[in-house]
Structures are given as structure tokens and as C-alpha cells.
Amino acid sequence: xxxxxxxxxxxxxxxxxxxxxxxxxxxxxxxxxxxxxxxxxxxxxxxxxxxxxxxxxxxxxxxxxxxxxxxxxxxxxxxxxxxxxxxxxxxxxxxxxxxxxxxx
Length: 104
Hints:
Layout: E1 4-6, H1 10-18, E2 23-27, H2 32-42, E3 48-50, H3 56-68, H4 70-85, H5 88-103
Parallel strand pairs: 1-2, 2-3
């Protein structure tokens, strides 16, 4: 898959990052704009769009950027490797256990 255009939910963002896919968010609710901006800051997205203000031109520009600018794909692959090297479940379990131990 060259790129994804999606709503920007946390799970969808995590999936695109986990699979090294650059994307752009078309947000319509709640935390989606914030997740879109996070993807921009991470360097895997050219823009975040709000559905209520979306234009054909703006979406086309994002698609052209995702397809034509290798930096988005390269950064997505870098983050994919970083995420693959982490053991998120073990880290989270350790953090919870440490917190519970501190509460005793």
C-alpha cells in the first residue's frame, strides 16, 4: 500500500505506523485532529484535514505529496522499525506493577 487516508482514530494511526504506511487524516470528531497533527509532527503525513472544510484540491495535494515525496514513506519505515523493536505489553505491565508496588 502506497499510503492511507483515514479518519485519524488512535487505532488506525497505530496500525498505519506499525505497518510503515504514511497517511493523511480527514478528521470529523473528537481527538482525530490531534492525532492527525501528531502524524504530521512525526513526519509521516503532509497535512490533516477537517471533513467540514475539506476541498478536492487539498485532498489531492495530500495524495500527491504522499505518492511523490519519498520522505513520508522513509519516515514511516523508520518508525515501523522503532515500534517493532519495542515490547509495549511488557513495558506497560512493568509500569502498572511499579505503580501498584508504590501504592502499597
